Amino acid sequence: MGREKEFYIVSGKEVEEGKVTDVYFLRTMKVLKSKGLADKRVAMEVAARSLPNKFKWGILAGVEEVARLLEGRKVNVYSLPDGSLLRPWIPVMRIEGPYSEFGPMETSILGFLCSLSGVATVAARVKFAAGNKPVVNFGIRRQHPAVSLAFEKAGLIGGLDGSSGILVEELGFKPVGTMPHAMIILFEDQVKAWKAFDEVLPEDIPRIALVDTFYDEKTESLMAAESLKDKLAGVRLDTPASRRGNMSQIIREVRWELNMRGYRHVKILISGGLNEYSVKEYSEAGADSFGVGSHIIGARPIDFGVDIVEAEGKPIAKRGIKSGAKDLYICNDHLVYSYAPKGVEPPLCPICGKTMRLAYTKILDNGKLTYKIEDLKALNERTKNMLRKLKGLGETL
Ligand code: PCP
User: Which of 147, 152, 107 is nearest to 15 (CA)?
Assistant: First the structure.
């Protein structure tokens, strides 16, 4: 079938076959093979040379995808697991084997790690800003549909509390959402729309009324509370930029007016144009939860590089990269990394002086998958706990 019928999407099979690669790798392999160098055993290390917008930390994602990409190839791969804390210049992965086994896969290896870690990092930063208040990914509409589920998974690895796409059910998460302006407009009456929503939909779906369609947020919030009373779980303020003004004041006012009339149970959900800074500000103003789209799903890729650090057992690297295969160590109490040449004594944590633990796990053993792929719910909780620990250690955005 013509590519156009598949929306010009590349199939998983084509990725696995190495079809997503830069042409210079094909030329390189032709030259190396003709000179008998293609099967040189190398160690290549993946590290982020910088984080976007000078972030001080990030979250790693895409490790499972790389493990499955290289499965069956004669390589050993040592890596931090998905959901690990990222710092610039920390080698997150080491791949060992004949260059011909994985060299041209560099394009897809980086493609997975750069894009998915970018989404996980921004998701984690928004969650870090929201603290214990829920943050849901509302952004699949802002991204190419073919990668929607992969990016929703990355957002959940980053610690989000939910995602709106129906396919997240496959990942063990119930899709989360409220209602669109379109529904209210078709009723031409907010109250009729909210009442119909309540009448038609199963009880387990929270009644969160969108309250910015025709009138201002305070007016519609009170209309929603008066029409659904105890059944109203919350109101969603999706105020368009043309009306935003002082959104924190709007949130405080809505909270005040709901409380004044006995509707303390009604939560305030904010969506539309949010980032980690506005989430922090609106949370302080009294917002209870957040739906974030573009900022998370459109995250800048993390600038990972994958570089040869050893060839036939000898240290060798390009300028700017430290040669020699390294092991990565972590002090989990202080979330501090350190690396040392492979096989030497583990370093001591610079903060507590304790011997640091090897941070890598072996995810492929001569091509055999040995990566214990964690249940996403458990990984999601682990990230949330790590974000709380990071905050407790004094880390900031
Ligand atoms: C948007 C839609 C998305 C939210 C806001 C994400 O509102 O509700 O879920 O926005 P963001 O990408 O700026 O973070 P609309 O586009 O007005 O869509 P709707 O009418 O369905 O609310």
Answer: 107
